[in-house]
Amino acid sequence: MTRIKICGLRRPGDIEIVNKYKPDFAGFIIDFPKSHRSITGEEAGNLRRILSPEIAAVGVFVDQPAGKVIGLLRNDSIDIAQLHGRENDDYIRRVQEESGKPVIKAFEVKNKEDIETALSSPADYLLLDKGKGGGETFDWSLIGKDMDRAWFLAGGLDPFNLKEAIDRLHPWGLDISSGVETNGVKDQAKIAEVMRIIKRS
Fold first, then answer.
1. Which of 25, 53, 57, 180 sits most deeply, having the most CB atoms within 10 A of its CB?
2. Mean pLDDT score, 109-135
3. Catalytic position from the list 14, 79, 129, 175
4. pTM score of the predicted model
5. 28 burial type by CB count under 10 A (0-12 exposed, 13-18 middle, 19+ buried)
């Protein structure tokens, strides 16, 4: 079954919803003020403590100091680091080696060369997106059938296009945020629908 990550959680009420519907991953955007979903590392740790142990906590970072990311992984505020900035291979390896935890690296996809760059990354998981959380889909035809890595599809996913994404691309995982929100707040009914689609696919 395709894995699912619900991203941009920021309130205890969000955690209550995901604890009920059990996605595989819960994402926290950490110290990225451009996003209204941004929270501090301390807040992420507090939410992590009330998150079901069955759900992996993912910290989403954009060009943060590696030491800060490693620290949050080591103190169990998060289980996985997701990197959305210009972090290079050396940065990724350092986080992996010093934390002993997995790394997801996000790649902006505009052409096939971007896919090739992603496939060469030392990250444990790849995430293919149109941009930094812009909520828009990219040209899915750029993704070939030779994706032999664990990868997440992101960008513009919602209950209306989720089944097509799964049937057409067979991603290892899906990353969804704004597609399960109403007026910028996580919507229980939309999360329930997404989980229903995942389980039936």
1. 180
2. 86
3. 129
4. 0.95
5. buried
pLDDT for residue 132 is more than 60: no
Strands (E), 101-147: 103-108, 125-129
For residue 141, what are the CA distances in angstroms to 103, 111, 112, 114, 161?
A: 26, 10, 9, 13, 15
In the chain, the number of structural domains is: 1
Choosing from 7, 14, 79, 175, the catalytic residue is 7
Q: The domain that contains 55 carries what CATH number?
A: 3.20.20.70
From 112, 127, 141, select the one nearest 176 (Cα to Cα). 127
Q: What is the pLDDT of residue 45?
A: 98
Taking every pair of C-alpha atoms in the chain, what is the biggest distance, in angstroms?
41
Q: Is 14 a catalytic residue?
A: no
Active site residue 129: yes
pLDDT at 142: 86
